[in-house]
Amino acid sequence: MDTPIARHDNPFHAGEQAVHERLGIRERMVGLGQRVIRTAMPEQHQRFFEQLPFMLAGSVDGDGRPWASVLVGQPGFVQAPGAKRLDFHTRPIPGDPLADGLAPGAQLGFLGIELHTRRRNRVNGHVVALDAGGFSIEVDQSVGNCPQYIQGREFTWVRDAADLQPRGTEALTALDAEAQALIQRADTLFIATQAPAAADGADVATGRGADVSHRGGRPGFVKIEDDRTFLVPDFTGNFFFMTLGNLQLNPRAGVLFIDFDTGDLLTLTGTAEVVWGGDELKAFDGAERAWRFRVQSGWRLREALPLRWAFRDWSPHSTLTGTWAEAEARREVQRLAQTWRPYRVTRIVDESRVIRSFHLAPADGHAVPPFQAGQHLPVRVKTATGELLHRTYTISQAPSEGGLRLSIKREGVTSSHLHDQVHAGGVIEALGPRGQFTIDAALRRPAVLIGAGVGITPMVAFARHVVTEGFRNRRTRPLHLIQVARSEDLRAFGAELQTLNQRANGAMKLHVVLDEGEGAPEGARQGPLTLDMLKTLLPFDDHEFFLCGPPGFMQALYDGLRDLGVRDARIQAEAFGPSSLKRRPDGAAAAPTPPAPAANQATVTFLRSGDAAEWTPEHGTLLEFAEGKGLNPPFSCRAGHCGSCATRLTAGRVTYAEPTAWRPADGEVLLCCAVPAAGGGERITLDL
Questions:
Q1: Is CATH 3.40.50.80 the classification given to domain 447-574?
Q2: I need a surface site. Which of 14, 177, 252, 561 has the fewest CB within 10 A?
Q3: Are 300 and 204 in contact (CB under 8 A)?
Q4: Where is the 2Fe-2S ferredoxin-type domain (predicted)?
């Protein structure tokens, strides 16, 4: 029978608690830890350890330095005679620092990992017996681990399991070229840390002593910074933060790299510090934080392992993560956000009778720009007569999926041109993604996504993002996606949404509402979508609503939701074209600040060309003024909703006759609505 920790307070030590507190999960982790952290091994863990040909070990040498090591033997070399004991019928590899850490009473950490099944479990204990043939530990703590980031590999023996003599042993004080090459191509590493003994005598119950943990990613996920330093991203895991918690109390650590092709071991000891944020991390796909390791010394043990592993497949979680090279490329792309870049159309897919998806890839050698689900791309195309057409289109995919997909309805001059004149292999131009209609996939509050017609495009992006992040984080935000269309042949993404609904494993509910019933899928409702129908589709809960569709449709839904008592802050909406949603603020809203008066005249300087011209109110907005001077700034709605015309203001002040739906960033102006302001706007400079 499993034995839980016999404690009623927090089962985590002070370092782990500090990390939990920092991330706002302390209360949740107390209950979880008390349920899953045991003081004895469950039966399945005992049998699992007994079938392994190797285990990882974390130890501390006589100088207090942690090391990560490998113990090897034919399956059965580890025996569990009971829930509280493990017997190891093997000794450390000659030259491995683990030998210095094996002593009666030593607190060690172990990780059993089976690469071909992606199973892993960890156990911590203290040495109770030691002889020439092996050693035994009494179990202090037993924890099951998830299969995330473990690459699939099949093992074979290349020599007798008892032959553990390395074919060469080299001491290192820095990372030479060979060590750096191994690290740069690695997709797996193991880190050993140690929490020092506590004065409260609760060491065993709170996981004090050495520990060893697995880290995985795609090759290039470890960044060499110099010959003594490398940086490792920290991805979403089980939220225990045993490694990072140990580092809060003791910065010493050991790192092990295994060359699965040659059996070489690179084992290092040094110090590690947690990096909690920064621009570099923001650009790394999947990285929540990182840790920087500084090498003090190490060993290279050549062909130390009698095992070899053949790569089989990537962990599905690893494929959702990036590399440092990709992160740097994304940072470079972010610097090009205001530059028109060429994109090649790689594929065109008809999603319905009137909506067509254009799949794009950069044609300038730079990376795909980072974006948030729901954002749009300002696009321009040149007609046969040389006319430049501008429009913004929502990116209808998740940020982690690679590439860009624009799903466009045939309506209007620009969209019709794309449908009729742009083919696979063609090139269009676009600025960097922008938009404030986004979703937080980490929230637990259920999200209701309502898309009518082509308004389904941001909802598809939202749903794909939430489901993908749910897989990555093992917790999916509940979704209700309500798709409204006139008829089945006009409904886009039907099969895609059905597949996505299945992938969500119950976290997503797909509802289809059609005005015309012919050819409707099973379970579809007869439109139009009304509040009464909405109440039958949704359970009573504190939902957050996301609306996108024709202006009248959105206004009616918004007004109805507000009449039902849904707070304005719980209703997000994306408007197309010049129409704007008329909102009713929550509570007693403060009177809006009156806009500053417009200048009677102003000198406007265009920074990139160096030209200057005199503006007067008769010239209209700054967008109209720039167009009148022969410039072609990006735009779409011309009403302050989409942000496509946001431009950097380097000098002067502007004003707006009416508040804009889009909130420009500091130092930016919306050209489509802005005019020079009196009292500081008589001389302005625009980054055009």
A1: yes
A2: 177
A3: no
A4: 602-688
